[in-house]
Amino acid sequence: MKVLEVVELTKRFGELVAVDGLTFHVDKGDIFGLLGPNGAGKTTTLRMIYGVLRPTRGTVRVMGVDVVRDPVKARSYMGVLPEESSVYPRLTAEENLIYFGKLKGMDEAELRRRVKELLEALDLEEKRYVIADKLSKGQKRKLAFARAVLNKPPLLILDEPTSGVDVMSAREIRSLIRQYAQEGSTIIFSSHNMWEVERLCKTVAIINRGKLQHLGSVEELKRLSESKEFEEVFVKLVKGEVGEAV
Amino acid sequence: MRLFKGSSGVVRVTRGLGQLGYSLPDKPWLVVAWKELVEALRDRRTIVNVILLPAIMMPIFIALPMMIMSPKTVPPRIMVSIQDPEAIEIANYFRELKDVNLTIKVEPVNVTDLIINQGYDLVVEVPQGFYSNVSSGGSGVIYYYYDPYQMRSTLAMSLVQEAINDYSEKVLKRRLEAVNLTEEYISPVQSISVQVTAEGEQVSPGEIMAAMIIPLMVGIIAITGAGTFAIDMIAGERERKTIEALLTAPVKRIEILLGKFTTLTLLSFLSGVSTIVSSLVGVSLMVSPMAVPYDNQTAAMATQIIEPSRLPLFISGVLLTVVLGGLTGNAIMVMAASLAKSFKEAQQYVGFLVMILMVPMIAVPYVPQSLYWLMRLLPIASLAMLARDLIVNPNWTNVLTSLAFTLLYLAVFLVLSSKMFDRESLVFG
Ligand SMILES: Nc1ncnc2c1ncn2[C@@H]1O[C@H](COP(=O)(O)OP(=O)(O)OP(=O)(O)O)[C@@H](O)[C@H]1O
Ligand SMILES: [Mg+2]
Fold it and tell me: For helices B28-41 and A93-103, what crossing angle results, to 10°?
């Protein structure tokens, strides 16, 4: 089943075509990695998927719902961690989660359970009653991650989820991503960490200058570029040294 | 509510108040409104901006100048130099003056030194030959030496002038009796002024002040008071990078806006109420006998600011101004804050708007009556006119006209603000 379907997705910023006719889909339970050099259009693509940017052309469907036509319904299927996203500095860690839980319409008991579970899993338990202003950068990022996955939505959209967090927390976030995928969530995320991508992703899309360059499983891309190191695979594919672009 | 925020940043609250709890209702706009309120309350500046500032500003602006000017607070220093040994009668009139710091000398004085160096507000000179001029049917001359830069000098002159008028009147009476004439004979025309108000009765100076100043002050505060919060809730949310995540919640943007709007309106309402209370205090201080002791009429009427039978209309007029002003002002502020590309820009827009929006409010008392119809049709001015029409002259055609136009503009501003809030650039500047 296609949880996410992107067709001919295009975004122009004036003269610049930041995303240029992207077409791909993500199946249920998949962990989909969106890769590309800086400025490739990953964030712009994800922003159109979660509906804060309007596509210039093309469509995005989440669980069959058009994101532009019925944004509220489409967003009810998503949990989003934007690239540069922070938390409310004057609310405590717990309150930050309660706020989003309430906006997502979670019921009280479930919300309580999830807040406790996530704060523990992400090693934020002792910051529960601390206003977020007093958290470290990585702790804020973890809190923003918890906010995104709070209600275990069918589709998780994570823009560089592990950037800026410590080794243990990055590992915890990866294990949560894997766990949610096993439980039936679908995940699309962007990352610059090839090691992480290799371990997590079933499917990988490499985009460059807004265009989809390669799409396939980690193994397929390795074969295509005749390399064992995934980082090398990425570099070769982006530079266009090997393989046919899709 | 017990809110404690220690240096560790730990927030402990005994009950659900002032906190975002699990039992919050599910309505998204209520959740947003409550969260904004909690955040606003945790910012110390909020209490200062919303309650304290309007509370102390009004008495300071309205009453303080009067209090300082009042001779009761600091009696003006007056030196009387009587160089005519025969001028005993007028000297007695001077001695009876109240609320002045008076020194009488019988020799010539150095006027410049007294006023420039010694801080006297007024020097009065009764020159030689004064009494013989007065008693021989001529005119006795008295000199005032004063500091043109000192308001207190003018005050001192008006106090002394009263004593001189009393003396002059007494002399005049004597002269008229001697030639068998009445006072009416030498003042063939007299003028009497009578107040005409819709209520058909005399109104106290307190009431005049209250009717003119309070709705405007309150309106200004309601319109402009929540500007800083509008910046914080919209431009601030972008600046702190929380807005993008917020807009991914499965909630209509209009509901998010409604929630923010609710809290903004509540805050400007609080501000407005604080202004009402403090304006009333300011006005009563101003018209109290203490402030203007030499006017008996004022003293008699000052005990009452608003006549009790007019109080309901007054209060509903002011409250309506607060609510409609708050809504209108917040719609405009939300528009500005959504349009701005950055926090700084939002501050500039709002600062500019605050000044612009105050102009029609302040202008109302000065506009000629023939232009009132126009004022009722213009944005913001219609609100000021509504307050005036309700409180001073409740003619229903006028009240309904200004109400209709106020509501029309409010609707326009609300639609525009929701349009602005819906733009892509809200997130990205
Ligand atoms: N709001 C915007 N207005 C104008 N141009 C934009 C805007 N957002 C992004 N761009 C441009 O679009 C292109 C793609 O940007 P995007 O943020 O999607 O890249 P990215 O792949 O996420 O890069 P990174 O790895 O650095 O996060 C860039 O050239 C960027 O300058
Ligand atoms: Mg990016």
Answer: 160
Average pLDDT, chain A: 93
Hey, which residues does B122 pair with through a beta bridge?
Answer: B78, B146
CA A209 / ligand 1 centre spacing (Å): 10
pLDDT at B243 over 70: yes
The residue whose two tokens read 């807004």 is A210
Which residue on chain B is closest to A131 by alpha carbon? B9
Judged by its nearest atom, the ligand closest to the C-alpha of residue A82 is: 2
- DSSP annotation of B251 reads S
For A202, the token pair is: 């079933």
Tokens of A173: 């976030």
Q: Which residue has the higher pLDDT, B47 or B234?
A: B234
Residue A127 per-residue DSSP state: G
* Residue B294: predicted pLDDT: 42
**Closest Cβ opposite residue A129 in set B12, B245, B251:** B12
CB A120 within 8 Å of CB B67: no
Rounded to the nearest angstrom, the distance between the alpha carbon of A34 and the centre of ligand 1 is 14
Cβ contacts of B343 on chain A, cutoff 8 Å: none
Q: What is the mean pLDDT of residues A2-22?
A: 96
Torsion angle, CA of A73/A78/A83/A89, rounded to 10 degrees? 80
How far is it, in rounded angstroms, from Cα A58 to Cα B148?
A: 78
Q: HEC states along chain A?
A: CEEEEEEEEEEEECCEEEEEEEEEEEECCCEEEEECCCCCCHHHHHHHHCCCCCCCEEEEEECCEECCCCHHHHHHCEEEECCCCCCCCCCEHHHHHHHHHHHCCCCHHHHHHHHHHHHHHCCCHHHCCEEHHHCCHHHHHHHHHHHHHCCCCCEEEEECCCCCCCHHHHHHHHHHHHHHHHCCCEEEEECCCHHHHHHHCCEEEEEECCEEEEEEEHHHHHHHHCCCCHHHHHHHHHHCCCCCCC
Q: Which run of H or of E encompasses B108?
A: none
> What's the rounded Cα separation, in Å, for the pair B196 and B392?
11
Contacts of B424 in chain A (CB under 8 A): 52-54
Q: Is A130 on the interface with B (CB under 8 A)?
A: yes
Any idea which residue has 């009765």 for tokens? B201
pTM: 0.82
Give the tokens for residue A220. Answer: 């397929």
How far is residue A219's CA from residue B182's CA, in Å, rounded to a whole number? 122
**Gyration radius from chain A CA atoms:** 18
Homologous superfamily of B77-179: abc type-2 transporter like domain (3.40.1710.10)
Segments making up each domain of chain B, as ranges: 27-66+202-428, 77-179
- The angle formed by the CA atoms of residues B292, B293 and B298, to the nearest 5 degrees, is 65
Give the list of residues 6+ apart from residue B177 with CB closer than 8 angstroms, or none: none
pLDDT digits (tens, 9 = 90+) for A140-164: 999 999 999 999 999 999 999 999 8
Per-residue pLDDT reduced to its tens digit, A183-229: 999 999 999 999 999 999 999 999 999 999 999 999 898 888 888 88
Q: Give the strand pairing for A155-159 and A186-190.
A: parallel
Question: What is residue B5's predicted lDDT score, i.e. its pLDDT?
Answer: 52
